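Shipment paperwork, digital attachment
Item: protein structure file
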Amino acid sequence: MLNNSIIKKAAEYVRSIQIKADESGHDWHHTERVWLNTKYLATKIECNTELAELGALFHDIADAKFHNGDETIGAALTKEWLENQFYDKEKIDTVVFIVDHVSFRKKYKPNPKTHPELSVVQDADRLDAMGAIGIARAFSYGGYKQRPLYTANFKEASSTIGHFYEKLLTLYKLMNTEPAKELAKERHDFMVSFLEQFQKDILPIKYLG
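Attachment content:
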């Protein structure tokens, strides 16, 4: 049975931390979208929805990118908060495992049959890096990091456009669940179309003759 009380408390706690304006695209609005994606995907496969939702809410509580690469802070904060709620230890372990393994940087590929909750949250997080919202977040993060829009080498990872080739265009094939793959296909195709149009816009002579 879904424990709506713990989920509501977790959402309020995470929101209180992340609600401040954020230019990197890793704010409460991102977490909320991942949460909503997770709730949808969790209805499509067999998993513990409560644990998946908690994993989604805490997945970016302390992103390593903003903590000098420290991958342990998010999991530690999650564990501490859940323990303070006297939450079940085995359930805490599952949620902490999600937070500790969800990131793209970890390159952890879960098996949906043995780790369905992590599979769902990881898919939900990656969906938010794709499509129109993914494009918007990429440029927001690029501005935050003061990256150039693009370089002479279009696929160079140091630019925002290069980030699409380095990471964002790879996400479709990395989806863990079939429902996520269906959603990711449309978003992937949208990004491909955007990049094609972007090239036309910056190289009009080549395309217009």
